[in-house]
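Whiteboard transcription, Tuesday session. T.W. wrote the C-alpha cells on the left side:
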C-alpha cells in the first residue's frame, strides 16, 4: 500500500472490509460480535476489529470534512478565503488519519499470511505487552503524613 492510499483506492474501507470478510469467512458485523463476546479467543481478530472500527470512524470524519469544504467552496467567489483553506487542511488531515489506519488494518491482515506470521507476531506481542507509558509522566505522590526532612532544603549562601 503506497503512501497515496486515498488515490489508489476509491473506497478504502470497502476494499479492506472485503479482505477482512474473506480472511475470517464472515461478515464484519458478525466478526465484531464474536470479538465482543470473546475478545481473547483470537487476538488477531480483536486487533483487526479494533483498527477497523478506528478506520470507519476516520472515514466518517473524512466525509464530513469534505462535505463542509464543498459547502464552503460553493459560497466562495473565485478566491478561497482563510476559513475555506482551514477546511481544506482539515480534509487533508482526516485523509491522512484514515489512510494511516487503513495501512494498519492492511498490515494486520497481512500479518496472518505465511512468511509474515513470525515477524508480525513478534511485533504484535511487543505492542500488546505495553500497558502504560514507557516513561513516568507525573511525579510520584508522597504520603500525606510524610514531610521532607528540614535539612533537605536550605537556602543557598552567597559565595564570596
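and on the right, the sequence the group agreed on:
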Amino acid at each position: 500500500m503506497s503512501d497515496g492510499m486515498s488515490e489508489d483506492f476509491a473506497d478504502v474501507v470497502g476494499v479492506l472490509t472485503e479482505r477482512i470478510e474473506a480472511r475470517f469467512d464472515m461478515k464484519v458485523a458478525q466478526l465484531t460480535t464474536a470479538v465482543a463476546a470473546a475478545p481473547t479467543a483470537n487476538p488477531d481478530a480483536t486487533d483487526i476489529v479494533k483498527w477497523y472500527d478506528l478506520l470507519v470512524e476516520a472515514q466518517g470524519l473524512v466525509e464530513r470534512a469534505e462535505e463542509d469544504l464543498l459547502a464552503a467552496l460553493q459560497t466562495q467567489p473565485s478566491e478561497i478565503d482563510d476559513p475555506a483553506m482551514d477546511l481544506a487542511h482539515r480534509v487533508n488531515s482526516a485523509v491522512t488519519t484514515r489512510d494511516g489506519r487503513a495501512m494498519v488494518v492492511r498490515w494486520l491482515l497481512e500479518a496472518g499470511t505465511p512468511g509474515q506470521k513470525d515477524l508480525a507476531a513478534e511485533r504484535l506481542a511487543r505492542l500488546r505487552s505495553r500497558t502504560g507509558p514507557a516513561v513516568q509522566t507525573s511525579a510520584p505522590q508522597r504520603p500525606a503524613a510524610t514531610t521532607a526532612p528540614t535539612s533537605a532544603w536550605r537556602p543557598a549562601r552567597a559565595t564570596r
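Someone added at the bottom: Confidence is low (pLDDT under 50) at residues 1-10.
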